[in-house]
Amino acid sequence: MAAFSYIAQELCSFWDNYGWHCPAILLLSWTGYFLLILAYRLTFHPLAKFPGPKIAAATHAYEFWFDVVRWGRYTHEIRRMHERYGECVLVDLLYESIRMSFIAAILNSLILFMHLDTAKLISPVILFLPSLQGVGTVDHDQHRLRRGAINNFFSRSQIYRLESLINENAQRLCDRLLDLRDQKPIRVVDPYSCFSSDVITEYCFGESFEYLSQPTWEPNYRTALNILFGYIHIFRHFPFLGYLIEIIPLARSIVSRISRNAGLVMKDLKPVIVAQCVSPRQVIIPEKIRRTESISTTINGTSQTTILSSLMASNLPPSEKTIERLSAEANVLLIGGTQSTSVTLELATYHLLANPLIAERLRSELSAAVPDPKRLPAWKDLEKLPYFTAVILETLRLVYGAPGRLPRIATDQDLFYSGTWVSPRSHDKVKVSHVIPKGHAIGMSAFIIHMDETIFPNAATFKPERWLDEMGKVNRGLERYLLSFSRGSRNCIGMQLAYCELYVCIAALQLRVLPKMRLYETNDLDVQYDHDELVGKPRSDSQGVRVLIV
C-alpha cells in the first residue's frame, strides 16, 4: 500500500507542476509517431517500391475518399491507376492491385494457386455483419473443412439431379410473367430474385420461401440484400459498426442516417425482411435450421437430404454445427444463390431486348433444339448450343460478379512479375519487373480485367460473337479471363448451380416470355456499372431494367 501511495503522490506532484503541458506533449508525441509511420510506409515498407499515388501508400484517406465520400468508386480509380502506372499498382497500405495477363496466369496456375489464401483484414466481404462472415473464413485449413462439408452439394453431378427443381421453378416464373400481360411495368430483377431465392432455399432447407407463389413480387430476399449491401463501405472502414448493428438497435438508426438514405428504406420494410436483413440469425433462418434436421427435399421423385440437414448430421466439430454458425453459412448461400443469378438474368434480358438481331439468332438456335419450350432439354444438351453459350458468357463478362478488388495472399513464396507496359505518355513499351513479397496481398478486379481492351476489344459492347472461333465453336481459351466466379479454391462454390439456372431459365424466357416483352424507359445507363456495394450497381437514380409484357 505504501508503494501505491508513493506512486499516487508522485503523479499528483507531476500533474501540479507539468499538467498544463500534458496535452501539448501528447499532441507532439502523436505527431512524431504519425510522421515516423508515414516515413516508414513511404520508404522502408516492403511495398513502398510499387508505383501508385503516394497518399494511397501513406494513409487510408485515399481509399476512404473513393469508397465512402465518392461511394463505391475506388475500382474506377484503380483502373485509372493501372492506365497511368502499369500492371502492378499499390492501391492500399496493405496490398497492391494486379491486372491483365499476370493475374490470369496466377489464377490459372494450379501449383501457384495452392499457396494463395484470402486476406481477412482487407476483404470488403467479411468486414460486414458478423452473420455473414462464413464467406470470409481466413484460415486455409478451416476454410477447407467448411467448404469440404458442402462441396458435393454443388458438384456438377449433384446439380444434374437438381435440374428438375430448377426447370419447375423456371416454368412457374414464365407462367407468372405471362399472367402480367397488358398490365403496368415491372422491374424484371424482382421476379428473377424470387426464382433464384426459391431454388436455393428449397435446396438449403427442404422448403422454399415460396416467393413465386406470392400475389406480388415483394417482399423478396433481394430487397434485404440491397439494404445490407448499402452499408458495406461504412462497415469496411468502421468495422466495429458491423457488430453493433446486430446487438444494439440504436446503432442501426445511427448507421442508417449515414449510409445513403438506408434508414428511409428500412423503416418501410416488412418485419420479415427486417428479420432477414438485420437479424438473420435470430428469427427466420435459425427456425428453418431447427426444423431442417429431419427435412428432406424431393427431386426427381427421390427424397434427398438438404444442405443444412447434411451439415447437422456431418462429422464436423460441434463448434461448426451451432445455430449461429449454420445461420452464417445459410446467409452466405442465400446471398450467393439469390443476388448473382437474378442480376445476371436481368442483364441478359436487357441485352436480348435491346439487340433484336442477337435475340433472333438465339431464338433460332434454341427453337431448332427445343421443340416444346415447356419441356426443355437437359442442361448438358443446352450447353452444346454454341451461340447460347456465347450469350451467357458475354452476359457474365458484363455482370462482373463482385467488381471490387478481391485479395489473395501468397503465404509460402514470393511472386515474380516480368513483362512490358505501354506508357500512356510516351507510348513506348517499358520493361517492368516486380517481386511481391510473400505474406502481402494482391488484389484483382473482375471489372478491370473484363473491360481490358487488349483482351476484349470494344469491351463495353455486348457482343456474344467474341466467344466464338472461326468455326462457330466456343473459344474456351478466352474463358481463362472470365472472373465472374473468381478462380481457384476460393472461387464461387455455387458456380455450377448458377450456370444451370442461367441455361434453363434463359432458354425458357427466350422461347416463352421475351418475345412478348418490351423495354420500358430503360437504357444502357440502367445496366452499366457505376459503383460497387460488394456487387456492381448502376447509377443511383436508376430504377433497373423495367419491362412491359404485351
UniProtKB/TrEMBL annotation:
Query: Record's CDD domains?
Result: CYP58-like (cd11062)
What GO terms are given for molecular function? heme binding; iron ion binding; monooxygenase activity; oxidoreductase activity, acting on paired donors, with incorporation or reduction of molecular oxygen
The protein's UniProt keywords, in alphabetical order, are: Heme, Iron, Membrane, Metal-binding, Monooxygenase, Oxidoreductase, Transmembrane, Transmembrane helix
Quick check: keyword Iron-sulfur in the entry? Answer: no
**Listed InterPro entries:** Cyt_P450, Cyt_P450_CS, Cyt_P450_E_grp-I, Cyt_P450_sf, Cytochrome_P450_monoxygenase
Q: Which Gene3D superfamilies match?
A: Cytochrome P450
Q: Which domain of life is it from?
A: Eukaryota
Any Pfam family from its record, for instance, is: p450
Which residue windows are transmembrane per the record? 18-40
List required co-factors.
heme
- What positions does the entry give for heme binding? 492
Q: Name the family the entry cites.
A: Belongs to the cytochrome P450 family.
Q: What is this protein called?
A: Trichodiene oxygenase
Species of origin reads Clonostachys byssicola
